[in-house]
Amino acid sequence: MEIVRGIVDELRAQPHVQDAEKAVCAYTEEARQRINAACDDLEAWQIVAYSLAFFLAANYVYGVVWGGREPFVTRMKRSFFRTVRSLPVLKDVIAGELDKNLQDMNKALFPKVAGESFVFELPVCGQSEAALLKELRFRAGMGEVDWEAGHISGTVYHGGEEHGRFLNEVNGMFLWSNPLHVDVFPGVRKMEAEVVAMCQRMYNGPATGCGSMTSGGTESILMAMRCYRQLGYERGIDRPEIVAPTSAHAAFDKAADYFGMTLTSVPVDPVTGAADVAAMRRRVSRNTVVMVGSAFSFPHGIIDDIEGIAAVARGYDGRVGVHVDCCLGGFLMPFMDAAGFVVPAFDFRVDGVTSISCDTHKYGFSPKGTSVVLYRDSKIHEKQFFVAPDWPGGIYACPAVAGSRCGSVIAATWASLMRIGHAGYVQSTRKIVQSARKIKACVRATPGVRVIGDPQGSVVAFASDDFDVYRVNEALGHCGWNLNVLQFPASVHICVTLVHTRPGVTEKFCKDFKASVAKVRSAPGKKVSGMGAMYGMSQGIPDRSMVSELAGGFISACLRVDPGGFAKQLQHDAAAPAAAMAARGGAKRNGHDSYGNGNLRRGRSRSRSLAAQENSDDDE
């Protein structure tokens, strides 16, 4: 303290410091006199009341600007658009346009299918296996996209017909198992732990590494973000923050929404498409609990600079974690080096990486509904668990969102990893990435389009500065391809899977791609239709809540039995249940269980109940 006082005295002895001190004292004295003069005519209670009012007003302004769940500008924009939409002159017009768009979208996405049935209630009696299998075969063939031929982006991560038959057999063995009851199904518990251990080894986890299986990449990300939120709570942070590039998966937005966190989205580098580490560093605050990077990102297939992100996090002495999202590249990235492709460090070998999400149900070729979330140590992992110690039903504890789970997908995942093995995954990685790079080279060689960044994995995204790239997607659709439409910027991507590596599939895509681009360039002024038009329109809507309403309408339509409204014409079939039952001679006819009257089928020529359809089809 004596040393500090000595330094301060030396500074105060300097002439320029003395001049500055005198000036500050003069201004302070002048301010004091003016405030006292302004309060000369006020009573003490008035001074107290005015001071309290000023404090409350300042606190309100602070809450408005900095206290919301979303940034101030976002909230102001939302409030402005909400006010505009409530104006009588616009309210009905906007509502009418939204309804019209929803109806058009439903017609486009849920077309009429000849022979389609509608089930609105339980059948009067249970159905025969033969009838149900027939209906299930019909429903399995309702889609128009030939994914088995490889004409689809991602979606189905097929490990081969033999692999599929093997997994079906495994699934049957463990169909009724539930890992919640470890005492009843110890084998399932063992397999889950071994899947986590295998994935930890794949990602070079330390001896303290641990993790859990989840239902998919979204749940893996949700669970990791919950851990960081809980750690933030322990440090006294009321609203923990996630800092992530805009290319990070939407599951991080969902985690922020579900868990009351703040997601700070940082624009990516406009040239490389990768996370801007310097920009992310500037957005880290005292409330930040985790930084996010992707290896590789879903939209454009770009590998973020995980080492750079981790270096920023290390500067905060363990207060900021780093989550690497490897959901899409989960069973490609760990095998890239062995397959002959050089990629930057991205896993637990990077000091500062504290958690990783990895999907087994993509390139791990396990059934849908499985993923793994990995942690560097149990101090983070244990924050994921939920425990209700005082429940009358017993001490309730589970590692993730679900309580009961189907043990068959865990068993099938274990079996998939064991059947394919390290060598098998190296081989599939080599084939998939080679096909993706052929497509990347094709896109780069095609005039008028450009590849976004330099993707190293299985995703190739392309955009255009010359024409509406959604028209290329539309043209490819006419060739039988089903790709992913992206936005901000307008672009399209193909996610290469094992089916694309079959002879001729990649070559067909390249041929169709070049022809589609040439077709679009020959008529540059033509407008796009369908989903491309919807995406193009949505990007230009400043009020993003309207886009959310359209998306919400789509989800609602998906969850309705008859979103296209085609069953209305059949309602007369259900007008007289008793008469219909009597006409069919009771609950059963010709050995087949009949469908209840609330279940309607669209026939090719006229409306019929499913029971009548079955009998006529059997005669044919």
Classify the oligomer.
single chain
Silhouette? globular
The stretches of 5 or more residues where confidence is low (pLDDT under 50) are 586-598, 601-620
β-sheet strand percentage:
5-15%
Supply the number of helical segments: 20
Mean pLDDT: 86
Report helical residue fraction: 40-55%
Overview of this protein structure:
With 620 residues, this protein is of the alpha+beta class. It starts with a helix and ends with a helix. It is 47% helix and 11% strand. The strands form five sheets. Strands 2-8-7-6-5-3-4 form a seven-stranded mixed sheet, sandwiched between helices. The chain is globular, with a radius of gyration of 31 Å.
SSE blueprint and pairings:
Blueprint: H1 2-13, H2 15-38, H3 44-66, H4 72-85, H5 88-109, E1 117-119, H6 129-140, H7 161-173, H8 186-202, E2 210-214, H9 217-234, E3 241-245, H10 251-259, E4 262-266, H11 277-283, E5 288-294, H12 306-314, E6 321-326, E7 355-359, E8 371-375, H13 378-381, E9 386-388, E10 396-398, H14 407-444, E11 450-451, E12 459-463, H15 469-478, E13 484-486, E14 491-495, H16 505-522, H17 530-539, H18 544-558, H19 577-583, E15 588-589, E16 592-593, E17 599-601, E18 608-609, H20 610-619
Parallel strand pairs: 3-4, 3-5, 5-6, 6-7
Antiparallel strand pairs: 1-17, 2-8, 7-8, 9-10, 11-12, 12-14, 13-14, 15-16, 17-18
